[in-house]
Design brief:
CATH architecture of the largest domain: Up-down Bundle
Strand content: under 5%
Distance between the termini: 22 Å
CATH class of the largest domain: Mainly Alpha
Number of strands: 0
CATH superfamily of the largest domain: MFS general substrate transporter like domains
Radius of gyration: 21 Å
Number of domains: 3
Shape: globular
Helix content: over 70%
Structural class: mainly alpha
Length: about 475
C-alpha cells in the first residue's frame, strides 16, 4: 500500500466513519417510524417486524463472508460495492409502495451494509499503523459505531415528525453518493490475498448465522438445532480445507477469542439497555420519540468527549486492559441504577445518572475493545477479523434484546397476575431485564480482566496538530 499523507489518512477515516454512521443509524432509525409505516402500507403487527428482521438477518448473516471477501478481492472494492448497494436499496425503500417492496429492499440494504461494515475496521487499521494515531483513530471510529444507534432514535423522530417515514431512507442518498466518491479518491488500494473463496464454508456459516438470528429474534427455538448442525458442518469444512474462509487457528489467539466473547456479552447488555430504556421512557414515563432521543443525548455527548480524544490518551497511558474493564464496570453500574428507577421517575434524579454512566462506560471501553479484537491479527486476515468482531457485536445485540425482552415480559406478566398496575408491572419487568444486563456487562469485565494478555504501550507523542 502506498504511503498516504496525514491529511489524506484522516479524511479517509472520516469517510469510513460517515459510512458507518449511515449503516448504524439504519438499525435504529426505523424503529421510531414503524407505526407510520404500518399505517401507510397496511402491515399487521406480526408482518411489521419484517421491516426490521429482513435487514437484521442479511446484515448479521453476511458479515463474516463480507470480511473474507474483502481480504480476497480487495477491501476498497468491496467497501465501495457495499455502499453503492446500500444506497440504491435505500432509494427503493424510500419509494416503496407495498409491503413486499419495502421488505425486499430492506434485505438488500442488509447485504450492502454487511459488506461495507465488514471491511471498514480493517481499512481503518491499514490507514493507521502508528500506535498513538491508531488509538486516536479508533476512538473516532468507535464513537460513531457506538453512538450512532441512539442518534438514530433522535433523527428518526425528527424526520418522521417533520416530514414522513420515507425520508428516513431517502436521507441516505446524498450520504451514500458522497461516501462513494470520497472512498474512490481517498481509501488505499490494498493488494488482496490470492486464494480461492471457500464456497462450502461461506454457504454453511452464512446459513447458520441467518437461522440463528431468525430463531433468536422471532422465537422459534427449534431452528437453533439446524443452525447448530450447520455450524458444526462449517467447523468440519474449515478444519479440512486448505484455504478456509475462517482459519480456526485465529480463535486460538487469546486476545482475539477473549475480546470477541466480551464483545458478545457487552453488546448484549448495551443493545438491550438502549432498546428497553427507550420502551421504559415511552410506555411507563410517557415520553414521545423526540424526547426519548433527547434523553440519550447526555450519554452521547460524554461518549463523544471520550471517544474523540480522551480515550486514546487513556489507552496510551494505561494500555487496553485496565480502561476496558473500568468502562465495562461503569456500564454495569448504569444498568443497576436503571434497575431501581421507579414508576414515576424524574429524569434528572432517576434517569440522567444512568445515561451519564453509560456514556462514560461506552466512551472508555469501545476503543480498547476494538483494539484488543484486532491486536493479534495478521494484516492479511484483517478483513476477516473485522467481520468477526462485527458479527460478535451483532449476535450479542440480537441475543441480548431477545433474552432481556423475554425476561421483562415474563416478569411483567407475573406481576400483572398478582394484581399490580400496568405501569408497575412494566417497570418491574424492565427492572429484571436491566439487572440481567448488568450481569452481562460485569461478566464481560471479568473475562477481559482475567483473560486478556496485552502489554501496556509506551507513552507516545501526540499526533501532529494537522492530523485532524
Amino acid at each position: 500500500m502506498p504511503a498516504l499523507d496525514t491529511r489524506t489518512r484522516w479524511l479517509a477515516l472520516y469517510t469510513l466513519c460517515l459510512a458507518t454512521l449511515m449503516i448504524v443509524l439504519d438499525t435504529t432509525i426505523v424503529n421510531v417510524a414503524l407505526p407510520s409505516i404500518r399505517d401507510d402500507l397496511g402491515f399487521s403487527q406480526t408482518s411489521l417486524a419484517w421491516v426490521v428482521n429482513a435487514y437484521t438477518l442479511t446484515f448479521a448473516g453476511l458479515l463474516l463472508l463480507g470480511g473474507r471477501m474483502g481480504d480476497l478481492f480487495g477491501q476498497r472494492r468491496l467497501f465501495i460495492a457495499g455502499i453503492a448497494l446500500f444506497t440504491l436499496s435505500s432509494l427503493i425503500c424510500g419509494l416503496a409502495t407495498s409491503q413486499a417492496m419495502l421488505v425486499a429492499a430492506r434485505a438488500v440494504q442488509g447485504v450492502g451494509g454487511a459488506v461495507a461494515s465488514a471491511v471498514s475496521l480493517s481499512l481503518m487499521m491499514s490507514l493507521f499503523t502508528e500506535e498513538g494515531e491508531r488509538a486516536k483513530a479508533m476512538g473516532v471510529f468507535g464513537f460513531v459505531a457506538a453512538g450512532g444507534g441512539s442518534l438514530g432514535v433522535l433523527l428518526g423522530g425528527v424526520l418522521t415528525d417533520a416530514l414522513d417515514w420515507h425520508w428516513i431512507f431517502l436521507v441516505n442518498l446524498p450520504i451514500g453518493v458522497l461516501v462513494s466518491v470520497l472512498g474512490l479518491r481517498l481509501l488505499p488500494k490494498i493488494t488482496p490475498r490470492r486464494a480461492r473463496l471457500d464456497v462450502g464454508g461461506a454457504v454453511t456459516v452464512t446459513a447458520a448465522l441467518m437461522l440463528a438470528v431468525y430463531a433468536i429474534v422471532n422465537g422459534p427455538a427449534v431452528l437453533l438445532a439446524p443452525a447448530a448442525v450447520l455450524a458444526a458442518v462449517f467447523l468440519a469444512i474449515e478444519s479440512r480445507i486448505g484455504a478456509p474462509l475462517v482459519p480456526l487457528s485465529l480463535f486460538r489467539r487469546r486476545n482475539v477469542a477473549t475480546s470477541n466473547i466480551a464483545g458478545v456479552l457487552w453488546s448484549a447488555a448495551m443493545f438491550a439497555s438502549f432498546f428497553l430504556s427507550a420502551l421504559y421512557l415511552q410506555l411507563v414515563l410517557g415520553y414521545d420519540p423526540l424526547h426519548v432521543g433527547l434523553a440519550f443525548l447526555p450519554g452521547n455527548v460524554i461518549m463523544a468527549i471520550f471517544s474523540l480524544g480522551l480515550s486514546a490518551k487513556i489507552v496510551m497511558r494505561f494500555g487496553i486492559k485496565g480502561p476496558l474493564g473500568t468502562g465495562l464496570l461503569f456500564v454495569a453500574t448504569a444498568l443497576v441504577l436503571l434497575a431501581r428507577a421507579p414508576v414515576h421517575a424524574g429524569f434528572v434524579v432517576d434517569i440522567l445518572p444512568s445515561m451519564i454512566l453509560l456514556g462514560f462506560g461506552a466512551g472508555i471501553a469501545f476503543n480498547p475493545m476494538l483494539l484488543a479484537a484486532m491486536s493479534d491479527v495478521d494484516p492479511l486476515d484483517s478483513g476477516l477479523a473485522s467481520g468477526i468482531v462485527n458479527t460478535a457485536f451483532m449476535m450479542g445485540g440480537a441475543i441480548g434484546v431477545a433474552v432481556l425482552a423475554r425476561v421483562a415480559a415474563s416478569r411483567s406478566n407475573a406481576l400483572r397476575a398478582t394484581g399490580h398496575s400496568a405501569a408497575a408491572a412494566l417497570t418491574g419487568g424492565y427492572h429484571a431485564a436491566f439487572a440481567l444486563g448488568a450481569v452481562f456487562a460485569l461478566a464481560a469485565a471479568v473475562v477481559t480482566t482475567v483473560r486478556l494478555r496485552i502489554k501496556a504501550p509506551a507513552i507516545a507523542p501526540e499526533p501532529a496538530a494537522d492530523a485532524i
